[in-house]
Design brief:
The complex is a heterodimer. In chain A, 10% of the residues lie in helices and 37% in strands. By secondary structure, chain A is mainly β. Chain A has a single domain, classed as Folate-binding fold (2-Layer Sandwich). The longest helix of chain A has 9 residues. Chain A is globular. Chain B has a single domain, classed as Gyrase A, domain 2, CATH 3.30.1360. In chain B, strand 4 and strand 5 form a beta hairpin. The chains are: A mainly beta, B alpha+beta. Chains A and B meet through strand 2 of A and strand 9 of B.
């Protein structure tokens, strides 16, 4: 249980949100030219690290908007929250 | 208005809390991002859409609730007399918004049930089943929030002090109202 600061609605409880996986994964420009392994790499393989992770979240029980979050997965500390299309404010 | 029967049969009253369904009330969801969309809606309805998050605006006939940066709900302040699904406001918005490709208008009159709550125990009731912090919300007239109450999506509009409008999807409304009655009886 933790509070998330939705960039649109303000601070809300975690149960209003849905995690959407790793952020900033770029879709290949020419998917047809990729091998099955490369396509699977893009489609399924995620870092799932212990530490600072860049994630997508959706305020599904609120404004229903997607946004990005920088979260320390080891202690759930939220380092930053920023809108889709924006650059991460922390590295 | 489609010929749905009332979801909530009887008004309920508890010490410090009265609950009743208000029907029929026109409800529209409008979506749009462009600046021209905001001005077209403003001119059509003589009502400025709220730009600030979690707020509402009101004219003599209509209230607009902020739902997200590009989505608003508009509902009629008065109970409608018409027994059909044709609303002048919707027709006007369809003409000025949809046909000019500025945004979208959806009639959600029958999708959402409007429950009006009155009394000083409203937020005591909400706090038994919602993760939202109502401390600041309850003292500010006109605030709006979308949150969950007993795991059901709701829209709460703080119409006046101790006077709250709650919108819930029709399919969840019967269960929610029975939960609210159960919870209110234990306050």
């Amino acid at each position: 249980m933790f509070l998330i600061n939705c960039p649109f609605c303000g601070e809300r409880e975690q149960s209003e949100f849905k995690a959407g996986g790793e952020a900033h994964i770029v879709r290949p420009k020419q998917p047809t030219e990729l091998s099955d392994d490369q396509w699977a790499e893009y489609l399924f393989m995620r870092k799932n690290i212990k530490g600072i992770q860049f994630e997508r979240w959706n305020h599904i029980h609120g404004c229903r908007k997607w946004f990005n979050m920088v979260r320390d997965t080891s202690n759930d500390e939220i380092k930053a929250v920023y809108k889709m299309g924006e650059k991460p404010p922390v590295k | 208005m489609l010929n749905y029967s009332n979801v909530i049969e009887n008004d309920k009253s508890y010490p410090g809390l009265q609950m009743r369904e208000i029907k029929p009330v026109m409800k529209l969801i409008i979506r749009g991002k462009k600046r021209q969309f905001l001005s077209a809606v403003g001119k059509s309805l003589n009502l400025l859409l709220p730009n600030e998050a979690n707020t509402s605006s009101r004219s003599d006939q209509l209230t607009a609730l902020w739902l997200s940066p590009d989505e608003w709900m508009i509902f009629s302040n008065e109970i409608l007399k018409s027994d059909n699904n044709n609303y002048d406001v919707e027709k006007l918005l369809n003409k000025n918004i949809c046909k000019t490709n500025l945004g979208a208008v959806t009639d959600v009159t029958d999708q959402f049930v409007l429950i009006n709550l009155k009394g000083d125990k409203i937020f005591d009731l909400f706090e038994t089943g919602s993760p939202f912090n109502f401390n600041d919300f309850k003292s500010k007239k006109g605030l709006v929030t979308q949150t969950i109450l007993t795991k059901i999506d709701i829209i709460v509009h703080n119409q006046d002090i101790n006077d709250v409008n709650l919108f819930v999807r029709r399919s969840f409304s019967d269960h929610l109202f029975s939960w609210m009655n159960d919870s209110a009886s234990r306050l």
